[in-house]
Amino acid sequence: MTSENASTETTREDIPLKSGAKHTKWYDCNDECFNGPKSINSAFGALTILITVALLVQIYYGDYQVVPHGSVATDSLECSKIGTQILKRGGNAMDATIASAFCLAVVAPHLTSLDAEGQLMVYNHRTRSAPTVIDFSSSNILPNKIPRLVVGLAYIHQQYGTIPWKELIEPSANLARKGYIVSKMLAQAVNRANAQDLFGRLEPGQLLRHDVLANTLLIIGNITEKELYSYIDSTNQPIKSQAVKSTFHKYNVYVPSLESIGPVLLVNLREIEEFNFTDVNVGTTKGIIQTTLKTFDEFNVTAKFHEGTSTNVAIIDLNENYVSLVMGMYNLFGSKKSTSYGYVLNVKNKEKPCSRIPIILADEQYICGKRMVFGANGIAQATQIVSNLIIGNKNATEGIEAPRFYLLENSTVAVEAFHSPKFHVQLLDYLNETHKKTILMPEPYYSSNIVEMLNDELSSHSDSRGGGIASRF
Ligand SMILES: *[C@@H]1O[C@H](CO)[C@@H](O)[C@H](O)[C@H]1NC(C)=O
Ligand SMILES: *[C@@H]1O[C@H](CO)[C@@H](O)[C@H](O)[C@H]1NC(C)=O
Ligand SMILES: *[C@@H]1O[C@H](CO)[C@@H](O)[C@H](O)[C@H]1NC(C)=O
Ligand SMILES: *[C@@H]1O[C@H](CO)[C@@H](O)[C@H](O)[C@H]1NC(C)=O
Ligand SMILES: *[C@@H]1O[C@H](CO)[C@@H](O)[C@H](O)[C@H]1NC(C)=O
Ligand SMILES: *[C@@H]1O[C@H](CO)[C@@H](O)[C@H](O)[C@H]1NC(C)=O
């Protein structure tokens, strides 16, 4: 593997990275912010010279900011780093997504597996055309030759891949062989789902090796691309479609449409926009709760969609490809029994789509305005994050870490028992009043990982609920 260079990679999430010299500039964010046709003004040439001189000075002094920048946010620092390693080697966001997704199948067996299902959304901010959605959740994928997640990732590779398939899998095979640190979330999930048969009891912080899965990954990595793509036939075809777009407080909102909860989210956001909220406070949250309850009711959300497990990969690469992959299973640890190849099966007991959703937001008017890519599990989570980011104008960290409410199947509202920050006591009192007692949600909470850009600055954040850290360089 490529050795890590500490000076060009950072796992700090609290300082936005500014792009540097090798970032291929396709517009000038100080100058040409408006959408639509624009003329290059004469000052631009002079400005370019100034910038070039400034950058030469930076190169001379070896400032780390002169390397191209990209970021990967997942539920695991290891998996985020495996993604940025691929970006550093010249891979695009889609290559990095494949590598990180294999890694999550190793380190987060409670959430995902080689048999997991998922949806990918890919957007390019230079062309700004409607994002493409690739869905490998549907039952028309018959995982008879290769497992479902592998079908999905192989298809993504066929469509967009630039790095050899094998090289995208090897890091995860090595990680499974060498062992990974059990996260608090994984250890908790074992107890919660009674999945001790799989790995025994797990303690957070212990090293878990998985040789069988490592071998399986090597076998999958050994499949030639020609053979791999031949498995994607009419019986085994992910569904490709175009994302739908709506707007919310002067932001474009892109979500999948087919078989997805996306259109319901857009309706919910439209209703919330009508309140003209200008900040996220107790009153706003009450409005969001009421509106979302109404939407759940109107669209029969709990009957039509299943809340399965969810983990997501969010990536922006230096060519402004934005990728969000959401994936998961019907239940924690799926079948709870390992196949002879070392992964669990995704066992569904109802054929209804899951509620996980990839989301992209981009300032409607300013090209260099904020644009964000993330994933969520369900419209309550998605609506709250979109509201925090746009109405509350919160940065990536604050928008994701803000407290969340949950809508239970019986239409009651629950708040997180074990996450801080918590909701304002006035809101808790209000919930207490409306249903006698504030219901406290036990863990696990499904995470939402985000990468965002404002002008040329890149920020990212992995949700503390998922236990990951984003990696950037
Ligand atoms: C996000 O906002 C909080 C509060 O305003 C601030 O403390 C934090 O430094 C900000 N983070 C970033 C990445 O700007
Ligand atoms: C993968 O292919 C290499 C070279 O063809 C071979 O040496 C190795 O044994 C194969 N590994 C597996 C797990 O099939
Ligand atoms: C929100 O603003 C619009 C346009 O200014 C106005 O028509 C509408 O009545 C406002 N809605 C509320 C709830 O104040
Ligand atoms: C909601 O879905 C359930 C199950 O599909 C159905 O029985 C019920 O009638 C639906 N309710 C409404 C209001 O559509
Ligand atoms: C709704 O479900 C929650 C969790 O299962 C339970 O604690 C609560 O009492 C239920 N509320 C009603 C009104 O049935
Ligand atoms: C909700 O009400 C119960 C019973 O009246 C009380 O014990 C509890 O402290 C209240 N919780 C909040 C968060 O206000």
TrEMBL record:
Any Pfam family hit: G_glu_transpept
Keyword Transmembrane: yes
Domain of life, per lineage: Eukaryota
Annotated TM spans: 43-61
Membrane found in the keyword field: yes
Keyword annotations from UniProtKB, A to Z: Membrane, Transmembrane, Transmembrane helix
Protein name: Uncharacterized protein
Highest classification ranks of the organism: Eukaryota, Metazoa, Ecdysozoa, Arthropoda, Hexapoda
